[in-house]
Amino acid sequence: MSDVSNEDIMKLIYRIIKKQDVMEKTLNKVLELVESQKKDFSKKYHIADSSDFVFYPIANDEELQKVSEKVQKNSDYRNALLKFLGKKRDVIIEDLFTPDFLYGCNIKGLNGKRGLEGMVLYDRIFIPLKKREGIPEKHITKVVVNALDNVKRRINYRIKLGKQAPIQDNKAINNQEDVSLEMDCNEIPEIEEEFIDVDEMVKNESDFEEHDDTDIEEEEDKVLQISLNDFKPIKNDKELKTISDNIRKNAIYTKKTRLQLVTASSDGLVKLSQIFDMEFIKDYNLYGIAGKKNLSKLLPYKTFYFEIRKDLGDSLKEIETQATREIQMMHNRYKIQLERKNKG
What we know:
Layout: H1 6-45, H2 61-73, H3 75-86, H4 99-102, E1 105-106, E2 114-115, H5 120-132, H6 137-160, H7 198-205, H8 213-222, H9 237-249, H10 251-264, H11 272-275, H12 278-281, E3 284-285, E4 293-294, H13 299-311, H14 316-343
Parallel strand pairs: 1-2, 3-4
Helix pairs in contact: 2-3
């Protein structure tokens, strides 16, 4: 083997460096070209980066027409919408339409109602997304029928309680494509399967007393009238104890607080943020795992969240899944709030 001089080595290094420079220049040109085309594409179709795309549920016929035209005429908008909604693990019909809009709908458009079948958003967005989840089309129809029944029960319950919130109008929101998710759905943890004996759970802590009409009238004479605006989200253990005692001992308080919470919600569904403050909820999760306290054992949760949703027809799994999502969202908001406070 011949000896390799230092000069040979230096020439070799020089050639390698030169080739590297050429490759870097080529790569930079490619990146510039890609970025340029990306900007031209966004400008041409008025669509920002997919991470900025947002869709709000349809609230009226005008929004339905505008969004349907976009889905039909602009495949890029349609794909962005599919991607946006597809971030959820389980897309529901209320991700596309508001409850008030769905109240006037059924599957086939019978009895003077709007028919979901034939709507672009239903046929070309919702159905394909549910099929991706592995659900056969005939089962999708059953899921939607159940969802529509649930919407009807909730809104009728809201009307019965004496307050029908105005139909929410998203106005021109769906004319824009640049919006953002309230939270990253990937941050939502998988729900841990756990059996809970609901009857036993309520029996152990509720301690509700039976009252006839005479008892209630006597109790009303003993306590001050409770305004529908008196209840505030629980902030600490002292407030938790006070409210739990009121629930156990005062049926009037319980009834009026339930009414306040339901009527304060636009869709009649009580949210955990109406019952518990973020500062309080940070120490809890639904099952009391991973070093957290057990929210499901608290009497305000059972009385003002679990029982109301159960009365509206939600299953145990639906209630617990939704509660877990809301807890995670409150944890995320508290974390962001704390980070901003520390930076300030």
